[in-house]
Design a protein that fits this description.
The chain has 327 residues and is of the alpha+beta class. It has eight helices and 14 strands.
């Protein structure tokens, strides 16, 4: 089951004078000594187990961002829905005498009555997959490093630890990585051992402000009854299923596709071969993707050797003991 890690959210409260919450400010002064501009710094609110979130209020706008699913917890192997994360944030806002984030609230801008609502500017959704062990997880990462996600979504590999797509984008960003390498210092030994034994691959999709706005996901009530699995696993998980349905050697790929597959393995740049039309090359790519071959990526002998060993990924639910463990 998919869940939420990170939230960035703000809400305006017109007509109210809220407590000022910040960690100082940065400003510029013009030649006459007048303040040209001022930016308040967010306050780091520190919780237990080396966790923190950032809070700011300028008197009318409340802003929060951070890994709320991880806050005050020893780990975040499993977490909460978007709406549950908002509820966790709201419980923290009480400590600062700040109003909660809501679907809407009424206030006044001068003499005009206005309706404000909380706005999400970043939402990170994630899912855990079992690969069967650390060795299998390493092979998966090398395999996925050879899979393209589109003309603008550049792929980056970080050794045996992870792969990213569209890194640095202000629209969406995706990664899959070895969770046992990022458990932190406070995870229980039993849970750490379970993560390694399962070979947990962590798949995360960071949805930025423009994506949320364009896909009608920027307000809290947009997530009412929303199945996060459908959001994540619409366009973002197709790459995880490539090559898992067919286990044949390249020589067993039939007909013309087999010839193309072996040419790709031998180092031929099929995608860059302009003697064929772009339509033809796109058709080849679509037909070869189910075999785990992405002709937009150069052939790599290590990836080729591990492709046939990739097991079908299994989404992992929290074990019965997880939510009952000591905090």
């Amino acid at each position: 089951m998919a869940f939420c890690d990170w939230l960035s959210i703000y809400q305006d409260h017109h007509g109210k004078q809220l407590p000022l919450i910040n960690d100082g400010a940065v400003w510029a002064v013009d030649a006459n000594g007048e303040i040209d501009w001022r930016t308040d710094k967010k306050l780091d609110h520190v919780g237990s187990y080396d966790t923190k979130i950032r809070i700011k209020c300028d008197g009318s706008r409340v802003t929060v961002d951070g890994n709320i699913s991880r806050f005050d917890r020893t780990d975040n192997i499993f977490g909460f829905t978007v709406r549950e994360c908002v509820m966790r944030v709201n419980s923290l806002l009480k400590e600062f005498d700040l109003p909660p984030f809501t679907a809407q609230t009424e206030g006044y801008r001068g003499q005009k009555r206005v309706v404000d609502a909380a706005v999400l500017t970043r939402t990170d959704l994630t899912e855990n997959y079992a690969t069967g062990g650390v060795n299998e997880l390493t092979r998966l990462i090398h395999y996925l490093a050879g899979q393209d996600k589109g003309r603008r979504a550049t792929v980056h590999q970080y050794g045996d630890n992870g792969v990213t797509w569209n890194e640095g984008s202000k629209y969406w960003y995706e990664k899959i990585y070895a969770k046992h390498e990022s458990l932190g210092d406070h995870v229980t030994p039993h849970l750490a051992e379970w993560v390694r034994e399962q070979g947990i691959a962590r798949h995360e999709v960071s949805l930025k402000a423009r994506y949320l706005a364009q896909n009608n996901l920027r307000h809290i009530d947009n997530w009412e009854g929303q199945d996060m699995d459908n959001i994540v696993y619409g366009r973002f998980t197709e790459v995880l299923t490539r090559g898992t349905a067919v286990r044949s050697e390249l020589e067993d790929i039939p007909g013309r596709l087999g010839i193309l597959a072996n040419a790709w393995r031998a180092g031929k740049d099929l995608w860059g071969d302009t003697t064929y039309s772009e339509r033809t090359r796109r058709m080849w790519r679509k037909q070869l993707l189910p075999y785990g071959i992405d002709i937009k990526q150069p052939s790599n002998i290590q990836r080729l050797q591990t492709r046939l060993q990739v097991v079908e990924l299994q989404p992992v639910a929290a074990p019965a003991w997880y939510w009952n463990k000591a905090a």
